[in-house]
Design brief:
Distance between the termini: 20 Å
Strand order of the largest sheet: 2-1-3-12-11-4-5-10-8-9
CATH architecture of the largest domain: 3-Layer(aba) Sandwich
Number of domains: 2
Structural class: alpha/beta
Bound molecules: 3-isopropylmalic acid, manganese (II) ion
CATH topology of the largest domain: Isopropylmalate Dehydrogenase
Number of helices: 11
Helix content: 40-55%
CATH class of the largest domain: Alpha Beta
Largest sheet: 10 strands, mixed
Radius of gyration: 20 Å
CATH superfamily of the largest domain: Isopropylmalate Dehydrogenase
Oligomer: single chain
């Protein structure tokens, strides 16, 4: 009998709780099958708690969450809470405090899923974005001068540290090697304009590439990356990029792989505690209707198992998702799946526990 994993579950806002329940259902099914146990601890951080108590995410909670084996997050964002408070106070706070310096976002079109890209299929759309997750424009460095006057100045700085960039690039090279597909790592940047931060990235990328002779280093500007992701997604194997570019191109990636209903991500600290989440938001308009697609949350759970070392169980989750997408669902979009949120979760759990 393998061990027990202590998992913190933060269902969060909107449809977060609904999709999280389904992810947990699937995790329990594969845990039973593979002989490991899950010790789940639920936390109610999010918009409702903030409105009720004024508390977003206290430091003591961050410390507590840092003591788990992994964190599973539903969604953050509440229509009655000013934008930024929960995102910065929960999601970004955890990413930074737990030093989850990689945001891993697979872009994979499963058979049977619709992509808006004409004449592209599962064999063309299968790449992974490694997004730096603790630096760049997300550090909150900057400020105002003469705020609210006609002479106002606002500065928001892009931070790149050698250490932060190098660990991300190394992770990406290692990941490309382990993935063993096209063995190509594309740096997505903007070296022609951001001549300081991106110069550091580019030099670091070239230097680290020397240590990976089996991996082909490639480069594309971020604007061109968007173009190729639509026109020739098959060119990509692994993409490494900074925080802001990674945020933007992975929403494009999510659409290319069939929508937010299927797009999952992992905030990874390879030496610490990682957090897994569907990359879409809290979808307030679908809340409580049992129509949201839980597959992104389920896939996030699968990624969590992979990072915890339960690779077989992770594969079972993916196989089950593929089966449900290709044989059951009419669409990956909310309301149009042909099944309810609960039914989709049941089907995946059933297959994941048996096939
Ligand atoms: C994401 C989200 C977050 C980000 C927001 C909610 C802060 O868009 O995970 O991609 O910008 O990183
Ligand atoms: Mn985003």
């Amino acid at each position: 009998m393998a061990g027990t994993y202590r998992i913190a579950v933060l269902p969060g806002d909107g449809t977060g709780p609904e999709v999280t329940v389904e992810a947990v259902k699937v995790l329990k099914a594969v845990a039973a099958r593979n002989g490991f146990a899950l010790d789940l601890h639920e936390y109610d951080f999010g918009g409702e708690r903030y409105k009720r108590t004024g508390e977003v995410l206290p430091d003591a909670a961050v410390e507590e969450l840092g003591g788990f084996d992994a964190i599973l997050l539903g969604a953050i964002g509440h229509p009655d809470v000013e934008p930024g408070i929960l995102e910065k106070g929960i999601l970004l706070k955890l990413r930074f405090a737990l030093d989850q310096y990689i945001n891993l976002r697979p872009v994979k079109l499963y058979p049977g899923a619709d992509t808006p890209l004409k004449d592209k299929g599962p064999e063309d759309i299968d790449f992974v974005v490694v997004r730096e997750n603790t630096e760049g424009l997300y550090c909150g460095v900057g400020g105002f001068l003469r705020k609210g006057t006609p002479d106002e100045v606002a500065v928001q700085e892009m931070v790149a540290t050698r250490k932060g960039v190098e660990r991300c690039i190394r992770y990406a090279f290692d990941f490309t090697r382990k993935r063993d597909k096209q063995k190509t790592l594309t740096m997505c940047g903007k070296t022609n304009v951001l001549t300081y931060a991106q110069d550091l990235w580019w030099r670091c990328f070239q230097e680290v590439a020397e240590e990976y002779p089996d991996i082909k280093p490639d480069y594309a500007h971020v604007d061109a990356t968007c173009m190729w992701m639509v026109k020739n997604p098959e060119w990509f194997d692994v993409i490494v990029t900074n925080n802001m570019f990674g945020d933007i191109i992975t929403d494009l990636g999510a659409m290319v792989q069939g929508g937010m209903g299927i797009a999952a991500g992992g905030n990874i600290n390879p030496e610490g505690v990682s957090m897994f989440e569907p990359i879409g938001g809290s979808a307030p308009k679908y809340t409580g209707k049992n129509v949201i697609n839980p597959l992104a949350a389920i896939c996030a759970g699968g990624m969590m198992l992979d990072v915890l070392g339960e690779t077989e169980a992770a594969q079972q989750v993916e196989n089950a998702v593929i089966k449900v997408v290709s044989e059951k669902l009419e669409s990956l979009s909310a309301r149009r799946m042909g099944y309810s949120t609960t039914e989709v979760g049941d089907m995946v759990a059933d297959f994941a526990g048996s096939i």
